[in-house]
Records
---
Amino acid sequence: MPARRRALLVLALLAVLGAASLAVALMAGSIALPPGEVFAALLGADTPARPIVLELRLPRALAGFACGGLLALAGALMQVLLRNPLADPYVLGISGGAGVGALLAMLLGLAGIGVAGLSFVGALAAMLLVFGLAHGDGSWTQTRLLLTGVVVAAGCGAVVALILTVAPEQKIHGMLFWLMGDLSQVAGIAAPLAALAAALAIALPFARELNLLARGAEQALALGVAVPTLRRLVYFVAALATAAAVTTAGSIGFVGLIVPHLVRLAIGNDQRLLLPAAALAGGSLLVLADTLARTVVAPVQLPVGVLTALIGVPVFLYLLSRSAKR
């Protein structure tokens, strides 16, 4: 089978997987619903299942799909930007900045939009700090950006530890849940879905240039790519995608690291197909992980970040051993 045809087939299968993951999320829970009742509720029928589907499960599933897609897309972009298959959205300190903002909001007694707003401000501040420090006197390299991000992330981690130390005991549980990733307190789905659509709309027109950048900056420059401008664009899109996901769902790891790896193994490194495929696969993975988090020890709900870590660690170790053997 030709490589492009195989890639398109994988993309179609991922779209089906995304729809299936959303369907499972609507049916599964402490109260299991048959497909017929879910379908009737989606069509607007006045059934007992309607508030469960439309008010509880559907917003959470759509928010989870958007956040997973944002994290996977950001991971794919960061791996191209840094030319490092181990690059991850969180390595640049964006998650740490969002964590500082969210925990400060909780410490001040804010909730809902207040937590989301300060979380986004923290993520944006961390992004601007990393980019400003890495840019310095005008020189800008992948290594400098990576090291600056690691240092800023470490500083944010120290501030998070300080906030947890001084926080009242009754607020610690909510703070820890947010830090481990939590979709149970999603305030709205419009923002993450719009962020995912915008990130794809911005990144996809530059997919050909990203293919050249993945081969090396010198080769891309020789072929007419405006590498400095493209790097800034990729960094800001990836950082804002990460900020939008973290603001909505808290700190969720490994999605941006392992999903682009797995998709790349299936369809290759053509960014025109890899970026939408990563978004679909990341969204499906997070929706399924959140469904497990809601049901595995129901009625108790686990932080979804715990599930993604339990899935991501063995997959990452397998990929690492596979590349070492090669």
Note: The chain has a mean pLDDT of 85.
---
Amino acid sequence: MSEYISSDVLATEAKKLYEELKAKIDDNSLTPKERGAIPQQEMPTGEPMERARSMGEVATGYTVEQAIVEANRCLQCKNAPCVNGCPVSVPIPSFIAEVAKGEFKKAVDIIKTTNLLPAICGRVCPQEKQCQGQCTVGKMYKNAEKAVSIGRLERFVADYERNNNLGTLPQIACETGKKVAVIGSGPAGLTVAADVRRAGHDVTVFEAFHKEGGVMVYGIPEFRLPKAIVANEVENLKKMGVKFRTNFLVGRTGTLHQLLQEQGFDAAFIGTGAGLPKFMNIEGENLIGVFSANEYLTRANLMKAYDTEKADTPLYKANKVVVVGGGNVAMDAARMAYRLGAEKSSVVYRRTQAEMPARREEVAHAMEEGVEFRFLENPVKILGDENGKVIGVEVLSYELGEPDASGRRSPVAIKGSEHVVDCDAVIIALGNGSNPLMEKTTPGLEADEKGHIKVDEKAETSLPHVFAGGDIVLGAATVILAMGEGRKAAKSINEYLAK
């Protein structure tokens, strides 16, 4: 873990470097060797111990000088390998070239030709595994972490546009008279709504919760993705003419067939996500104080459990919290525990840090904030008192064996290594499955053995003019992958309606 450097120090260093490079930046005379020598600009963040008790955003964003300096690290490769790594094919070199010149509005307009949610993607996408993983600069360093910081630049220009009220709405084609129902307002659903509306179709989005945004609102914490940013993107869709119906659970409030047959929708898109939490099926999981990460984060994010005077839900007070898992959701839950008042927050993970699927940045932020990591351990039993409340977790120690099918080394239990970790709350963050509600309430809609809705190469389901995408098809994935599936489905819907 790198040593924390204050935002002021980072800003000062960037300003000094910018002044040194300004002449060559202005006349675009930096050589590839000089660009490669420019140090990567770190993302400024709040002071760890202060931010660990605050819901404010952890990463505070680049300054103008940091953004311009970072953009000038880009080599403008002709083959643009970074674009190949982007699920929605953002023209990355083109937008970075504009940032390098200080043309921030032009940069965000380029991004929006393929991605209408840059402020969100710039914050939560795993760029190091996608666009930045293909970056030539990172390969020069033989370290993907040294790649051009594409996501940070994307966030910067999106924030610049919003903060300076420079936003413009996409052009809408002539009204077609066709109606499309979008089920779910997560990243896939919002992407479909935008692309289908741009084609001139009437779009209504049905959302089960009382707020729009799906996983971006109920799952990702405020300190990583401020809810005002999601609300801003939803508001832009409303300005485009997209209608939203909240508190409408398709399959209960009304069925998909009723929407198509009784309400006159010509096509539908299912983007209900993967919201069915997985558990370990061990003794004690029904004790008071055991939560799925889904429930824990939904109460904190959507219902603001941290605001005890105004919260829409009671807060379960816990002083020692254990989170089971090693992904981004586990990091979110462990960090949220401190913000909800815990004295100690621990992550139990059965492999080592090297095998953790969570983003390195999220792991580093968690460590900075004081989260304890207990590697090579896994729960076998949750312990409770006479009142049925959690008092601890019995865990088993592990060592790493041979790699499994995913390439990660498999954990092997060490016999007789059982020991107890004291705690008064346990959060299970082991991923999510598909909610079976749509499948069970929609005759003829086919799904696989894991509950993922089956689609063809055009994202069409087993039902005619019903399409699907995102986590309900892929399984729990990322925001940008869901958006990529949404774009594909929207293209198919527009082609179908054009006929």
Note: Residues 94 and 403 are 40 Å apart (CA to CA).
---
Amino acid sequence: MKLYYSPGACSLSPHIVLNEAHLPYELVRVDLKTKKMEDGEDFLRVNPKGYVPALRLDDGAILTEGPAIVQYLADLRPETRLAPPAGTLERYRLQEWLNFISSELHKQFSPLFNPQTPEPMREAQKQRLGGRFDLVVSSLDGHDFLMPQGFTVADAYLYTILTWSPAVGLSLDPWPKLRSYMERVQKRPGVSAALAKEREAKKGG
């Protein structure tokens, strides 16, 4: 399989899951500004949406959208318990989290990355995200990860989004449980390996 990614982008989530699931894969870096891959080819031919992640399966099929990709990867290695079995209530709880992270956290960061966003709107977005963080913290009471059974693909996604906070001037100091959560996630070998690989890629330019 090939994961089309950009260092620090939301493609970090499936990168983590690939490691956690111990799946063989190849990384293909994408320049999101030029829409070119490292070999100079047009990324839009891979994913016309123009953004990462995208996953090329062994049969050549292309899968896009992070929440779909991470569930696909988890189902390839059910023994890792990165996703509950399909059809169970727990699986729908996982999808509930993935949808919340996608719509209420991921997309809420977008205006903060846009330098044209007016300051009043920027502050309103931070307040909105703060309320969402409160909900996440309340859900972490009594267990280390989002799901009571342990680390899942939802944690890979949430962790990825939370790493963006410093870049947009959103301090996590008011949420010490979120900081502790991030530390727990980051200690996982699959997570630290993905972070190291992406840091190395950034340094390489």
Note: The chain has a mean pLDDT of 96.
---
Amino acid sequence: MAVENIGCIADASPKAQEALEELIKRYKVIDLAKKRVQVDVIIVLGGDGFMLQMLHRFMDRKTPIYGMNCGTVGFLMNDYTLENLPDKIASARSAILHPLSMYARCLNGREIEALAINEVSLFRESRQAAKMRVTIDHVVRLHELISDGVLVSTPAGSTAYNFSAGGPIIPLGGNVIALTALAPFRPRRWRGALLSHSSCINFEILEPEKRPVSAVADFTEIREVVSVSISEQRKISLTLLFDPEHNLEERITKEQFVY
């Protein structure tokens, strides 16, 4: 891709701020924290959490994002280097992500919508386990799931909380999403399912006053929900750029062979 105007945004860590200063000196990149202008590509300096925040923040711009790791894990980031950066961006490979759309209805009648790039999670709010009915595409698949909670994960988020909870790692082009139970009590040993990316998943909270449940879409938490509907938002596309030797597809594959 042709790169002329490069924007950059950094988290508050000293490492990221130093990197931003060096980028401005060497390549005259635009600090997007100070100027709201249209650019050809956005460089994000930080870790995976900051990258998620920036993907949400710049979602409407439809601008490709190239991350450089100034954090800890950096699964969604490239290695940090300043050498030949415009050329590296020009030769980077694209990974297209589609977020999940969550629609939640609360005990008090409020209706809230939010988007999740990684996952939508439902958690019990009290000492008692959550109890819910699970419906997939208008067919009841579990009349009663009793657990600490449940989550629905995108392929990009499948290596994060989903994998830690025992869910599967999903290739980006797999056209599936993961439904993963969190510490299920009933049904015994039910761990979840792989579903088509076009599926509509609905959770009906049973006994919501006695067993309150919260829903979380990335950074948006909604408490005391009575129902949550989740589907992939195919109309929204997010473009992440990766160096050819560290593309996201390869990282997802490698995660399945880590021991």
Note: The chain is about 15% helix and 40% strand.
